[in-house]
């Protein structure tokens, strides 16, 4: 096992990302460069990611992201040992753009190629940032994902449960929209909630009455609309305090559900005879401080790991790392590597 320098590329949603990572066995991996080119401004007028626009932007920007990552690392293609790329799941046009670009680079530079599952990228991040040992429990919470994963090896993931409808980030974004706050909704709702009274509105905690780790967040939206409309009907509008109280009530409901289901997921690990080395979170919603606090409490004696935000959200470093883990375990792909819109772990 020798030191390896890996290029990681990510384009499955609305971030064009490339990173260079170096790892010498027995030492902590080093992120030499981590370039993320977001597309927020491109999609903003449409109120959501437009797949065709995203794909075109990825195809146009990926070369540049790679160039910047190499320049940032002070390296050239000849210094690389491996090219890792997200091969799914995600918006197929974007994934395809990344895979094609990665094939071109691997072929041109005579380097091995590894296709990475985007979710594995998120799920293995605690090993990149904190050297987490197997097994550990991961809660992935973003705008598109919400699931508990038991991670037992670089290629051994068990889904213990997840959302049956919306992801929490999506719920935060919708709440912000319904209350006239800016997007992305998460940070805006958290800011308002900090000034609000969580006890004024009592929102549902869906599926808590059912066993298991599945969750549901779409009903919260309906409840929020009802409460908002009741207040507006009485007063003809929302005051700043109404808005803050609605945000606080909503955030408390999300945190309660995630905390209780995390407790169950940890109990499920124990029931399987496993002692997790850590309870880790990833995804944009993991930025929420109120939520982090609750999850820390739930973790108890199990170390709670929350990677830095730039590595919690979509990035190339996590793909480089997951690719490296796969490569070290003997996995590589050929020029027939396919882009997959759906790819369960
Ligand atoms: O992981 P991410 O950057 O992208 C994907 O969805 O893949 O997550 C973005 C989501 C958005 O829905 C955003 O509103 C949410 O994460 N988010 C937050 C916070 N910061 C970002 N949600 C709650 N509280 C926050 N502080
Ligand atoms: Zn992601």
TrEMBL record:
EC number(s) for this protein? 2.3.1.234
Among Pfam families, the record links this protein to: TsaD
Q: Where does Fe cation bind?
A: 118, 122, 314
Q: Which UniProt keywords apply?
A: Acyltransferase, Cytoplasm, Iron, Metal-binding, Transferase, tRNA processing
- GO-annotated biological processes: tRNA threonylcarbamoyladenosine modification
> Where along the chain is substrate bound?
140-144, 173, 186, 190, 288
> Is Membrane found in the keyword set?
no
**Can you state which reaction this protein catalyses?**
L-threonylcarbamoyladenylate + adenosine(37) in tRNA = N(6)-L-threonylcarbamoyladenosine(37) in tRNA + AMP + H(+)
Give the superkingdom in one word.
Answer: Bacteria
What are this entry's molecular-function GO terms?
iron ion binding; tRNA N(6)-L-threonylcarbamoyladenine synthase activity
The terms describing its cellular component in GO are: cytoplasm
Q: Which cofactor does it need?
A: Fe(2+)
Question: Could you tell me which Gene3D superfamilies the record lists for this protein?
Answer: 3.30.420.40
Q: Where in the cell is it found?
A: Cytoplasm
> Is Transferase tagged as a keyword?
yes
Q: Which NCBIfam families match?
A: gcp_kae1, T6A_TsaD_YgjD
What does the record give as the function of this protein? Required for the formation of a threonylcarbamoyl group on adenosine at position 37 (t(6)A37) in tRNAs that read codons beginning with adenine. Is involved in the transfer of the threonylcarbamoyl moiety of threonylcarbamoyl-AMP (TC-AMP) to the N6 group of A37, together with TsaE and TsaB. TsaD likely plays a direct catalytic role in this reaction.
Q: What is this protein called?
A: tRNA N6-adenosine threonylcarbamoyltransferase
Q: What organism is recorded for this protein?
A: Mangrovicoccus algicola
Q: Which gene encodes it?
A: tsaD
């Amino acid at each position: 096992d020798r030191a390896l320098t890996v290029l990681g590329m990510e384009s499955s949603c609305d971030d064009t990302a490339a990173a260079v990572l170096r790892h010498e066995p027995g030492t902590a991996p080093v992120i030499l460069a981590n370039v993320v080119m977001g597309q927020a401004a491109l999609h903003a007028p449409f109120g959501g990611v437009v797949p065709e626009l995203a794909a075109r932007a990825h195809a146009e920007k990926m070369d540049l992201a790679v160039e910047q990552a190499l320049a940032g690392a002070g390296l050239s293609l000849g210094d690389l040992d491996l090219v890792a790329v997200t091969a799914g799941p995600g918006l197929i046009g974007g994934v395809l753009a990344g895979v094609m670009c990665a094939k071109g680079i691997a072929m041109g530079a005579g380097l091995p190629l590894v296709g990475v599952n985007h979710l594995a990228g998120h799920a293995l991040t605690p090993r990149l940032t904190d050297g987490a040992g197997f097994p550990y429990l991961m809660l992935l919470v973003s705008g598109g994902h919400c699931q508990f994963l038991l991670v037992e090896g670089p290629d051994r993931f068990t889904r213990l449960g997840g959302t049956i409808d919306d992801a929490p980030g999506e719920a935060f974004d919708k709440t912000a929209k319904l209350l006239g706050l800016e997007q992305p909704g998460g940070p805006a709702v958290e800011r308002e909630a900090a000034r609000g009274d969580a006890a004024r509105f009592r929102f549902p905690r869906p599926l808590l009455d059912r066993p298991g780790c599945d969750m549901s967040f779409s009903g919260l939206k309906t409840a929020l609309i009802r409460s908002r409309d009741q207040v507006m009907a009485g007063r003809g509008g929302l005051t700043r305090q109404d808005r803050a109280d609605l945000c606080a009530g909503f955030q408390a409901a999300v945190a309660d559900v995630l905390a209780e289901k995390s407790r169950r997921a940890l109990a499920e690990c124990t029931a399987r005879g496993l002692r997790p080395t850590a309870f880790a979170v990833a995804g944009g919603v993991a930025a929420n401080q109120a939520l982090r606090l609750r999850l820390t409490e739930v973790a108890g004696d199990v170390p709670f790991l929350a990677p830095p935000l730039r590595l919690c959200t979509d990035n190339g470093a996590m793909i480089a790392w997951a690719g490296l883990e796969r490569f070290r375990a003997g996995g590589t792909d050929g020029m027939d590597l396919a882009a997959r819109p759906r790819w369960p772990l």
